[in-house]
Known about the structure:
CATH superfamily of the largest domain: Glycosidases
Number of helices: 14
Low-confidence stretches: 1-19
CATH architecture of the largest domain: Alpha-Beta Barrel
Structural class: alpha/beta
Mean pLDDT: 86
Largest sheet: 5 strands, mixed
Number of strands: 17
Amino acid sequence: MCKLFLGISSLMFLSMAQSKQECFPANDSTRVTAAGGSITEIIYFLEANDKLVAVDVTSNYPEEASIFPSIGYVRALSAEGILSLNPSIIIGEDDMGPAEVIEQIKESEVEIITVEEDHSITGILNKVNCVAAIIDKEKYALELIERELLPQIRQLKSTYSKISNDLPKILFILGLQGGSPLVAGKGVSADGFIKMIGGTNSMADFEGWKPASTESILNAAPDVILISNRGLSGVGTIEELKDHPALLMWGIGNEVDLQYSNFKVWETIEEIAKFIKKIDPNHPTLTVIAGLDPSKVFMIKKYCPSIDILGINVYGAIENAPINIRKYGWEKPYIVTEWGVNGPFEAKVNSWGAKIEPTNGFKANQRLRRYQSIIQKDKDLCLGSYCFLWGQKQESTSTWHGMYLSNGHPTEAVDVMQYCWKGEWPAKRAPSLMQIKLNGDNWKKNHVFIKNEEVILDFIYERNNNDSLYFDFQLYPETFSTKGGGIFRNHLIS
């Protein structure tokens, strides 16, 4: 089945629709350059690929189209590159560009035709009709539509009518961009596809393609997530990765329970886990939850029997995690997939509501104790851990969780983890700031001063090596943000 027509689901039109765009035979269609994947696909559908001399990079279906020279991306064309191929006509999608390149091509007297886009059944039929008219394949197009497309429409209509009530909200993922899913908003082909199969786009609050965070996807609460074959191939298939020497286990969902309301997510995780096990029985499956509570453990035990390992992201709650995981009835292995110091969401606040961040020395000692007395001690069920955060990020402050400073220098948290894992400290250790006092009050207390009042700063530190030290003091305004990541603040003084 042609990719272009996959998903047509209603019999709104069963005869060839007349296009709003007037399409006429080209003056010369013997050497066609296709600017747009849908144009290339239609030309192949019409069995006119012998006319092609070049295609753009989005023309990845059918695979045979890759044999032709590439003219680049449909929205970023080069007149020189196209004209060097000596085309008789250029047929492009309506987003073909940029505009100055299109004008330059027109001035060269090479015929160029833009085909209107309409992401509907009518639009698809019109588009086929238009391309067929341009390359003088109208009669053959009518035969193909009657013989191939209309039966597909009827079949998909029948199939969808059985499940339409179960698919109200759909999320379409094209692939990954910068590690984030690239999802379809309004006005793109995938949005039209979703409408054609009777669903609603869960990301219709913006236009075009945009990377989406995990939080935004959870808030959108889609009932179904569709991902393109190209998107899957970009991260590698199970078949491709199952024998990779670096593969430890299959992680299925990270914190899907965070602010969730659709409990069917656990059934979905089970289906994925079962599917993985059929292909790769040699690696365990894992799913990760935010925190640790009885309801989530119950749901996973009941609905996800194919999950072998439970991942838990815990911070202050790590103190009782080994006891609680058993109390809640989990008998399989678990991994502490995120842990570290108490998070900003668990921190005490001062009298005016600002979060109180412990010193790095306090946090380093907390990491050491939690690893040795909690994680390492539970040898029966705990398989290991991943400490958070092996890097640097803004989390209410820029120093709360990060084990590195913004300049790339490691803090004592890095030294602590080396000691935990190797049993020895690094040759050069970072200094450790244990205590800060203003006018005798330590970091846990309120610090209220009158403007222009003289303040005495005391601090206790451990040098940990013989290197010389210098001290840089920066004063920041308070941040009261409760959202993930917090808000960056420029310092007031140095």
